[in-house]
Design brief:
Elements: H1 8-11, E1 20-21, E2 27-29, H2 40-49, E3 54-58, E4 67-73, E5 82-87, H3 90-107, E6 121-127, E7 130-136, E8 141-142, H4 143-147, H5 156-177, E9 181-183, H6 190-197, H7 202-219, E10 222-224, E11 226-228, E12 237-240, E13 243-247, E14 254-257, H8 260-272, H9 297-304, H10 307-323, H11 331-345, H12 349-365
Helix pairs in contact: 5-8, 5-10, 6-7, 6-11, 7-11, 7-12, 8-9, 8-10, 8-11, 9-10, 10-11, 11-12
Length: 368
């Protein structure tokens, strides 16, 4: 999970309160990424240059692999039709080009349950010397918008509905792409990566050993390989009528990988911001015994598995394990592995260090 430049819900909000008129742009098609079906060149150039078209600029992360995202609204359309990601650094260009390749690969697969919720690649372009990749816009409102509305996460019914929507979409994705089973591999090489990232920290050696023990427990089970989104959090899930109607930002995706990565990512990211709207040191509304007493308080609360929210998280992860043919008792280890993944992969150093320290604390508290 890339570190957010600011709390997660803000990322999904447009910078401009009203659409702005798009300036004419010179865009030349690139050959590096195969285009999708339809007329990608006409779709992008017409939307960007036609008089009366508009654009909405979305906030981006400060991470080095991030870019700008612009939603393009053709004249008289009333809603965005194309999403264009524009790279601002070479690292960002590699990431968004990789995402375009993945979307192209997804289009070649038969995905009857979730295919309609996926954006479709519409071409790669040079825009004033910067790589830009276009895709179709999928319908819905980011789940993070509701998440940060007044006391949304204090209401058990609404929280359960969010977890049910995420679980339903993941079940469809897994059913559409299930392949041969393999050992559960959430923590492969995590110990070595922890030591490589923090070679001068004594605590990294302790953590590498603890992560290795968690990985050993997980590896005794197996799961089928499936498509993996890779950054499955509320900001990337679009919802309509209580169901997931679109899933965006496939930059960390895999055509074949460990399905529990997405399960852990959703549960952890949802838990991380439970105390976002609570003053430091104060109780968090709707959650008995949860206080805003430091970074990761919501995750610690979730892994404890207590009270109504802990049961929601436990049932979400344990249910996915059961559905995938692995022991439900591994649910806490799955979450610990998810924290380790963020610690070793997050681009933002402080965000990674927060996860490292949280994992060090939790692995000393949680027993198999």
């Amino acid at each position: 999970m890339s570190a957010p430049a600011r709390p997660a819900a803000v990322q999904a909000e447009p910078v401009q309160a009203e659409p702005v008129q798009a300036e004419p742009v010179q865009a030349e098609p690139r050959r590096a990424v195969p285009p999708g079906d339809g007329q990608p060149f006409a779709g992008l150039l017409t939307a960007m240059n036609m008089p009366g078209s508009a654009a909405i600029l979305l906030n981006g992360s400060r991470d080095p692999n991030s870019g700008l995202t612009v939603l393009l609204i053709p004249p008289d359309a009333g809603e965005p039709r194309l999403a264009v990601k524009i790279a601002t650094t070479p690292a960002a260009a590699a990431v968004i080009e990789g995402e375009a390749r993945l979307l192209t690969g997804l289009e070649r697969l038969r995905l009857p349950r979730v295919g309609g919720t996926l954006p479709r690649h519409q071409g790669a372009y040079d825009v004033d010397g910067l790589l830009a990749v276009a895709s179709t816009v999928v319908p819905g409102v980011p789940m993070s918008t509701g998440y940060h509305s007044f006391r949304q996460t204090a209401r058990p019914g609404r929280v359960r509905a969010d977890f049910a929507a995420a679980a339903g979409w993941l079940a469809g994705l897994h059913a559409d792409s299930m392949a041969a089973r393999a050992p559960l591999c959430l923590l492969d090489g995590a110990g070595e990566r922890i030591l490589a990232r923090w070679p001068d920290l004594e605590c990294a050696r302790t953590l590498a050993g603890q992560a290795g023990a968690v990985g050993d427990r997980l590896a005794r089970a197996s799961t089928p390989r499936t498509i993996v989104h890779g950054d499955f959090w509320a900001g990337n899930l679009l919802v309509s009528d209580g169901a997931v109607s679109g899933v965006v930002d496939w930059a960390a995706g895999e055509l074949s990988g460990e399905p529990l990565r997405d399960v852990a990512r959703f549960a952890l990211s949802y838990s991380l911001y439970l105390d976002r709207h609570t003053r430091p040191g104060r109780p968090v509304a709707g959650h008995p015994r949860l206080r805003a007493d430091g970074w990761g308080a919501g995750i610690r609360y979730a892994i404890a598995g207590e009270h109504w929210y802990g049961r929601v998280v436990r049932d979400f992860v344990a249910g996915a394990l059961t559905r995938l043919g692995a022991p439900a008792s591994l649910w806490r280890d799955v979450l610990l592995a998810g924290i380790a993944e963020v610690a070793v992969t997050a681009d933002h150093p402080e965000f990674a260090a927060h996860h490292r320290d949280l994992l060090l604390r939790l692995t000393g508290e949680v027993r198999p």
